[in-house]
Amino acid sequence: EKGDYKHFMLKEMFEQPDAIRNAIRGRLDFDMGTAVLSGLEFSPRDSALISRVLVVGCGTSMHAGMVGEYAFEEMAGIPAEVEQAAEFRYRNPIITPHDLVVAISQSGETADTLAAVREAKHKGATVAGICNVVGSTIARETGRGVYLHAGPEIGVASTKAFTCQVSVMLMMALKIARTRRMPRHEGEEMCRWIERLPELVEKVLEQNDAIKAVAEKYAKCENAFFIGRGYLFPVALEGALKLKEISYVHAEGYHAAELKHGPIALLQENTPVVALLNDIPGKDKTLGNAEECKARNAPVIAVVSEGDEEIADEFNDVIVIPNCPPSITPIPTVVALQLLSYHIAAARGCEIDQPRNLAKSVTVE
Ligand code: F6R
């Protein structure tokens, strides 16, 4: 039931601190500075034998996988790739016995992701699932994996599943990293940050009214861009997906560096650009890209880290994200973009929980 909330999406966005708490409960081992994910069934030796991680999924789940890709490479030093599940299954992927294939699916029923799981198993990979729905087909067929414990997600636009998927990917990367080159004290610090995720998300939810005011300024736009780099590149893609699916505003997520290779031609005074300028490596470059947008008269909504507000002075609007390391920042940042999309859609009078042409789970190819 929606309770006091107008939409399931709103309720589920506000449930995120608790959903993440449930996703991490009992899974952080501060003594060893690692994560305990019993469903993965990896011994340290199994883990040491993994030579590559391939992440497959669709839509929002694929975006969560992209954050995971960065985390596996940065934290664990393992080559990682993410691929759209349908592309993976049909392009005859090269898989070796030392590959770990991670399938991400909220519903656990997405046809393309399931087919990718079957293909990967057939080719001899170790396959793990990250699912929310307990006993779903992908959860059963992967046999090993990690449940989100996010609770049922009813809104068609995925919100709490994404933040829990990323939380689980970070724990998976941490677990594997600690069997490799990551020292205990770094693992312990990562545990502390993961434990703080619910609180970081709460700080963003507290800005709901301010984000709503920004959203209402742009509710009449027909086009929008989201730009970011590094850990925030997938967040830009996810922000654009949320906006287009619930508000029907044509939104594009781009790597900030890619803008000048074409899409910048579309910018004009009624095309807002959401620039993810949080304090992570590459921030200064994205800042330069946001200035280029401003020079084309596009309004810029700057998303910045706390303490960095002055960089937003030259832009039209600002949303402030609590300070945290680069690998952690996708989670609070995406929550701000979920709220922004929600309020734009609400101001446009859209049917938020049941967007046209969409279904909660896509069981056809
Ligand atoms: C977007 C959305 C979809 C799903 C995609 C995969 O808000 O919900 O893009 O993420 O259809 O669904 P699952 O995760 O159930 O495999």
Automatic annotation (TrEMBL):
Biological processes annotated in GO: carbohydrate metabolic process; fructose 6-phosphate metabolic process; protein N-linked glycosylation; UDP-N-acetylglucosamine metabolic process
Keyword Cytoplasm in annotation: yes
First-listed, main subcellular location of the protein, grouped into a coarse class: cytoplasm
Active site as annotated: 360
Entry keyword set: Aminotransferase, Cytoplasm, Glutamine amidotransferase, Repeat, Transferase
EC nos: 2.6.1.16
Cell compartment(s), UniProt: Cytoplasm
Keyword Transferase: yes
GO MF entries: carbohydrate derivative binding; glutamine-fructose-6-phosphate transaminase (isomerizing) activity
Highest taxon in the source lineage: Bacteria
Catalytic activity: D-fructose 6-phosphate + L-glutamine = D-glucosamine 6-phosphate + L-glutamate
SIS domain location: 40-183, 214-355
Function, as annotated: Catalyzes the first step in hexosamine metabolism, converting fructose-6P into glucosamine-6P using glutamine as a nitrogen source.
Description of how the protein assembles with itself and partners: Homodimer.
The protein, known as: Glutamine--fructose-6-phosphate aminotransferase [isomerizing]
Full protein segment contained here: 248 to 612 of 612
